[in-house]
Amino acid sequence: MGFKILTAEVAHESNTFSRVATDEQAFRNRYFLTGDEAVNERGDKNTGLAGFLDAGRAHGWRIDHVLSAAAGPSGKVTTAAFDWLCDPIVEAAGKKDYDGILLALHGAMVTDLFDDGEGELLRRLRAVTGDDIPLAITLDLHANVSEQMCELANVVVSYKTYPHVDMRERGRQAGEILQRCLAREIQPRTIRVDCPMLEEVNGGRTDVGPMRDWLRAAGERERRADTFAVSINGGFASADIPDAGPTVLVTAEGDMDAHRVFAQSIADEIWGHRHQVLNDYLDVDAAAGIALKFESRDGPLIIADYADNPGAGAYGDSTELLRALLDAGVSNACFGPMVDAEAAMLLHQHREGERVRLKLGGKIDPRFGGGPLELEAELVLKSEGDYVGGGLMLGGLRASFGPTAVIRVAGIEILVTSVAQQILDRQQFEAFGIRPQSRRVVALKSMQHFRADFEPFAGRVIVCDSGALCTPDYRKLNYTRVRRPIFPLDLD
Ligand SMILES: [Zn+2]
Questions:
Q1: How far is the CA of 140 from the centre of ligand 1 (A)?
Q2: Are 391 and 426 in contact (CB under 8 A)?
Q3: What is the 141 CA–ligand 1 centroid distance (Å)?
């Protein structure tokens, strides 16, 4: 008989500056699936779970999958929600009849009680399993990795792509390393080196810039007989915790001092490139000015609002970019999402085709990204907000914006949603009757993930900072708990 393996997926990227607490419902809004339900929905998609199952098939494992859960990035996870996620996993592990454990985690979860949510989950697991059973985890490239995580997990494998398109591949890699541990071929542990920075300043972009070279060096290092995974995490700067920042991890055996020297060499490179920012962050009026003059011979102008990216825990209700586009008179444009459940509910009380007066967006914290816009809009479409992804990141996966409406104001179609999600798949527009390929201007809220599905048809891509919660200008945030001194707050 093959080995018996316990698996689970738990993901949250916690923006500790957000006023929106992350509770059980927030997970149910993204996904919360148990056992076979999770395997059926996610087991053959681009997910960590699918990679675990690939390894399991290759090695004849018997897999018990406990649950798959994720919430959209938002504020700290409540104690009740955290316990609700951890308890079934810890309880299953406590039965003690597993040979190994494989977890797909994010690595930047903060709870009301714990700065290191993943580390606390691993601590609870080790409390019932002891230290001997091999435990492998995958992490997002934007993990804020703690020493605790590296001490408690034998194997740590982080994504190597941003946009993230290698979830399944990394899951499989972690599974293959776990198999070698179970077969007693290897006995790896994971070491960690950090840099005094809030994040790798390009957020870990892997399509351009120096991160590509560092990841190539990591991949080459993984070919050594004593090295099984090398991970370079860009960090997640919207977390006011001591461990925020980039890290280099090496899962290996043998001469750990030599592995540490290698990890430090990459960390030194990251530090050395701290001033090399690849994005040109325009202000919203400059972006609107470019949009007004843009000629879309080779495809639309894509304007990414970096700062209001719900994928990093911004509210998605910043109005500044929309205001600028309306003020400039930009036409044949679409904009999404404007996350405003109150407005969506109001619109659902009207019929399609009606004109509706409403206050749109800017309601959660107008200090970041502007207050509500008073508009008269034509209601184009109402929807329950469900869609199925079509691109590299979400292909085949179901998701929902909750009650959703499309409104038209002057020359701009606006996607008004109830649930905050970043735009990273064309289906997030197309499912609601908006074809971004045929628009002159596409304004969306995302930092980098949109590139996977939107760059192929874009005429030009620009990035702006609306001043919303995920502004790249960290001095606008009140950091009190990160380790000091740190770049760019104190160090230059
Ligand atoms: Zn990420």
A1: 5
A2: yes
A3: 5
CA of 313 to the centre of ligand 1 (A): 11
C-alpha 73: how far from chain center = 7
Closest CA to 474 of 177, 239, 257: 239
Banded pLDDT at 96 (limits 50, 70, 90): confident
Is the pLDDT at 161 greater than 90, yes or no? yes
What are the percentages of helix, strand and coil residues in the chain, rounded to 5?
Answer: 30, 25, 45
Cβ-based neighbour number of residue 420 at 10 Å: 30
Question: Could you read off the pLDDT of 183-218 as tens digits, one per residue?
Answer: 999 999 999 999 999 999 898 899 999 999 999 999
CB 105 within 8 A of CB 138: yes
Q: Which residues pair with residue 462 across a beta bridge?
A: 303
Write down how long the chain is.
Answer: 492
Q: Is 67 left (phi over 0), alpha (psi -120 to 50) or beta?
A: beta
Instruction: Classify burial at 473, counting beta carbons within 10 Å of its beta carbon; exposed 0-12, middle 13-18, buried 19 or more.
Output: exposed
For residue 136, what are the β-bridge partners?
102, 155
Q: How many A from CA of 451 to the centre of ligand 1?
A: 14
Neighbours of 470 (CB within 10 A): 30
End-to-end CA, the chain: 57
Three-state secondary structure string covering 50-63: HHHHHHHHHHCCEE
Taking the centre of ligand 1 as the mean of its atom positions, its distance from the CA of residue 162, in whole angstroms, is 7
Q: Which residues pair with 468 in a beta bridge?
A: none
Whether pTM exceeds 0.90? yes
Distance, in Å, from the CA atom of 156 to the CA atom of 47, rounded to the nearest integer, reads: 16
Residues 6+ apart with CB under 8 A from 409: 326, 375, 376, 377, 378
Taking the C-alpha atoms of residue 170 and residue 62, their distance in angstroms, rounded to an integer, is: 20
Q: What DSSP line would sit under 455-479, residue for residue?
A: GGG-SEEEEE--S-TT-S-GGGS--
Residue 107 Cα to ligand 1 midpoint, Å, equals: 9
Radius of gyration of the chain from its Cα atoms, rounded to whole angstroms: 22
CA of 378 to the centre of ligand 1 (A): 36
Residue pair 317/310 in contact (Cβ under 8 Å)? The answer is no
**One-letter amino acid for residue 59 of the chain:** H
Number of neighbouring beta carbons within 10 Å of residue 1: 6
Q: What tokens does 393 get?
A: 């990141």
**How much is the average pLDDT of 31-40?**
98
The structure tokens 């809030």 sit at 198
DSSP code of residue 78: P
Phi, psi of 10, deg, nearest 5? -135, 120
